[in-house]
Amino acid sequence: FFISLCKQIQLFNLTNQITMKKLSLLFTSSLIACMLFAQDYKVSFSANGLATETDSVKIENITQGKDTIVYGQDTLHLLDVVSSAESMESSTDVKLYPNPASGQSYLEFYSPEDGTTKLIISDVSGKRLLTRQMETQPGTNRIKISGLKCGIYLLTLHQHGEQYTHKLIVTSGNGGNLQAEISSPGATGLSIKSVKADGLVEWQYDDEDILIFTGYGNGHSRIHVYYIHMDTEVTFNLISCEDPDGHKYTVTTIDGVTWMAENLQTSKYNNNVPIPNIPDQTTWVDLTTGGRCYLAYDSASYASTYGALYNFEAVSSGNLCPNGWHVPSETEFENMIITLQNTGYNYDGYVDDDNDYTTNNKTAKALCSTSSWKASTTEGVPGNDDYPSYRNRSGFSALAAGENAVSEEEVAKFWSSTDLGADNAAILNLVYFYEAAQIENSVKISGLSVRCVKD
Questions:
Q1: Which is more confident, 293 or 72?
Q2: How far apart are CA 370 and CA 361, in angstroms?
Q3: H/E element holding 334?
Q4: CA 311, CA 448: separation in Å to the nearest integer?
Q5: Which pLDDT value is given to residue 189?
Q6: C-alpha separations of 376 from 122, 223, 338, 384, 395 in Å
Q7: Which residues pair with 291 in a beta bridge?
Q8: Rounded to an integer, what distance in angstroms lies between the CA atom of residue 25 and that of residue 240?
Q9: CB 365 within 8 A of CB 390
Q10: What is the pLDDT of residues 431-452, one digit of tens each?
Q11: Which residues in 31-161 belong to E strands, given as ranges?
């Protein structure tokens, strides 16, 4: 009995050893697999065309619903786990450099739209030394700060309801005339160059997240949409899309066709002839020439976000778009929708390759911005935040601009150049509660948005 018991104990120990070796091997294999397949991608940025480098790049992770801004010369490091909770979400919202400084420093930040920014400079005791309110423009804005003497200061920036505070150390300087001057990529003839270069900026990223990159350079901008699965260089081909008022429009390319990714807001035709602004509905409906207006015939402040609304007489002039661009035809809108259907841009990923935009059309979400749309519980529509990886996946960035009298946050309607007879013309229609991008008719006296397409 004793000998038998000893053999059983030896067998038990041997079995345990084999089991532990298997567990150890399994753990080691799993660890190696995690190391091999963990997200660790580096994304660098470059530009060609009207700029040789990017000033800044806005990145939107539409899958996770977050965004950030980096310098154009920084490298974006995408990781499944980042080393610091503030590595990207806060530290790059506002950048201060050089710090410590002697002579002058720069406070640089991204603004998604026109607005007012307030800067407060205080010493460490809290004494306010300067308060300056400044107008920002879309893109990267930079404030040059000079005239501080040796010491430690607090710089507080108020923008779009948020507050950012940075500590600035000045190592030398005699003080004098304390100044803060702002510049932005929208300023005429200005090209902002980043002082900080080759920074490595970490951001949390999951495989198959969809990223929208908007690159800014020399006042021009372009959108690229990617999911990153390897080290990548994103190159922005910055081209001219500028109206006679000096507005420079962000562009995007869908299957080789380049579109404006913002609504037209020009007050002049491309031959510099003014387009009348019509302030009331009675005058508007009686208009027999080209005209523009704004939602509910309100002030032109509406244009900074939504652009202007035009009647078909302005569209049919042939001079509405910037030189080198044109109002798309009905066929060009149809081809865009078919391309999205053929390449899996329906919100459910379904690929419909019958080249018929009237069937299995679920592309509205992929064409519409993630903001400005009235909420809806209907599955897969622009007003629902479901299927986040398909929201604005095309980069077209349609906003719910409404039409001349009604429907802000409910519809985006874009003129085509296709004339359908005495009273009507073809349009692209996007609705907050409807899954399809629709080609419809509209009466020519309507005030609708315009997107131009490159010749």
A1: 293
A2: 19
A3: helix 330-342
A4: 7
A5: 31
A6: 46, 27, 25, 5, 21
A7: none
A8: 59
A9: yes
A10: 999 999 999 999 999 999 999 9
A11: 40-49, 56-61, 66-71, 75-79, 94-97, 101-102, 104-111, 115-123, 128-136, 139-146, 149-159
C-alpha 294: how far from chain center: 24
Give me the residue label for tokens 């308060």: 131
Residue 177 pLDDT > 50:
yes
Structure tokens at 90: 């806060």
Entry pTM: 0.71
- pLDDT top residue among 73 and 254: 254
In the 8-state DSSP scheme, what is residue 200?
A: E
| Two structure tokens written together for 194 | 């980043």
Which pair of tokens denotes residue 11?
Answer: 């067998």
Nearest to 265 by CA among 239, 292, 297, 295: 292
Residues 6+ apart with CB under 8 A from 12: none
Beta strands in 312-403 (DSSP E): 325-326
- In single-letter form, the type of residue at position 447 comes to G
Give the mean pLDDT of the chain: 83
User: pLDDT digits over 276-287, tens only?
Assistant: 999 888 899 999
pLDDT attached to residue 382: 97
Gap between the Cα atoms of 5 and 11, Å rounded: 10
Q: How buried is 75 (Cβ within 10 angstroms: 0-12 exposed, 13-18 middle, 19+ buried)?
A: middle
Judging by DSSP bridges, how do beta strands 211-217 and 56-61 pair with one another? antiparallel
Per DSSP, which regions of 357-437 are E strands? 411-419, 424-431
